[in-house]
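Board notes (copied after class):
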Amino acid sequence: MRVLLDESVPRALADLLEGHEVTTVPRRGWRAKANGELLALASGEFDVFVTADQNLEYQQSLASFDIGVVVLAASRNRIESYIPIRGRIQQAVEAVAPGTAVVVAA
């Protein structure tokens, strides 16, 4: 899977997503893009967008984008919060369908 990590997600999360091609919004030069523009840019080029923005699925009509969204919900947006749920994050990345969102809570 081709995975794009939002700038709101710790970059070290890429190391937890084994077997996937992972890059980040800043590496693509898409820093500070609005969510709709970001999803439009990523659609078709990536399979999954991983974000900590818990409002994204309510602010955007995800069905209009050809990319799945995994929303991470943790009390602290730090890599230490995601290590214990790495298996669930990996499963969500592999299972999310284009135009839909899956929330993974820590």
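Comment from the instructor: The two ends are 23 Å apart (CA to CA). Helices lie at 25-28, 35-42, 56-59, 79-82, 86-95.
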